[in-house]
Amino acid sequence: MDMSIQQLRMLREVAIRGTIVAAASSLGYTPSAISQQLSGLERATGVAVLERVGRNVRLTDAGRELVRHAGDLLSSLEAARAAMEQVAGDVRGTVELSVYESVAVTLLVPLLERLAAHHPDLRIRTRQLEVEPALEAVAAGTVDVAFTLDYAHAPMSQPAGVSSTSLLEDVFHLVVPSDDAPGVTRVSLAEFADRRFIASSPASSCGSSVVVACRTAGFEPDIAHQIDDFPTMMRLVAAGAGVALVPDLGLLGLPAGVRVLDIDRPFSRTIQIAFRTASAARPAVAAVHDALVAVVDRLASAPSEMAATG
Q: What residue numbers bound the domain in which 302 lies?
């Protein structure tokens, strides 16, 4: 029976995504390439692993059994790779890193500078992904380390075989026009119950956290503008379009015409990094992990440096 690791990875991804098109998008292949590889897998094994259901496909019983073993095999191969790299002792190779906007603005440059200084043979490649696709990419093996988020009111579930480390608590503050609440630095959200809010979609984790915070304060927020970009939110606040709840990492580059107020019942999100459990021992992955912890520790002890980064 002659089957390749690539074919097994593709089959597992079809099982996770549900369609060949989605699996192809996740792995960076064309749907026809996935189909050809899986047809080759069926010829090699002599057993059908997929069956057509309308315009989609589903795994056969044999396909599901193969996926179950494929997961164990892929994890074992990654663990073997980590062990070999540990023996070699060198931090080199390529680490695929996914970021989202606020951590890219704040943490990416100092991370790359630190890694270049301490591990010049290590190459970092970055791509921008939202949290859920980033976790899926880590599980699929197309991303090695991903910045992710966790909210207390909506804990993020992690795919099997993925671990995470918490880096910092990102506390939310109320951003208001500069002539609001003069002489006040700490407010109750309830005082702003009749104001228009600028926030991410309530369907998103960030947007729903704003709704939860306002409901905890006793009112339903009037979200007049649904915007996912913190700098744009703050420019809208400066223009008098409403007020916004923005976390620490989103407060870089404050525009003129706004003030930042603490709230009396603060809430936060947790900035995390995720990686495959089997790859944690890889020197390259461990180097990225340790460098990130060091960067966050340095910025936490010198907040002005974080502001300067923006």
A: 89-168+270-309
Same structural domain for residues 120 and 253?
no
Please tell me the distance from the alpha carbon of residue 149 to that of residue 288, in angstroms, as a whole number. Answer: 18
Give dist(CA 210, CA 56) in Å, integer: 38
What pTM was estimated for this model as a whole? 0.72
Cα dihedral 288, 289, 294, 299 sign = positive
Give per-residue pLDDT as tens, 242-301: 999 999 988 988 999 999 999 999 899 999 999 998 888 888 999 999 999 999 988 777
Answer yes or no: do 180 and 203 share one domain.
yes
Tokens 């292949």 belong to which residue? 29
* Domain CATH for 207: 3.40.190.10
**Lookup: tokens for 27:** 């792995």
Report the 10 Å Cβ neighbour count for 275. Answer: 23
Q: How wide is the angle at C-alpha 96 spanned by C-alphas 92 and 97, nearest 5°? A: 115
Please tell me whether residues 152 and 141 are part of one structural domain.
yes
Decide: 300 and 292 in contact? Cβ < 8 Å. no
Token representation of residue 299: 């910025």
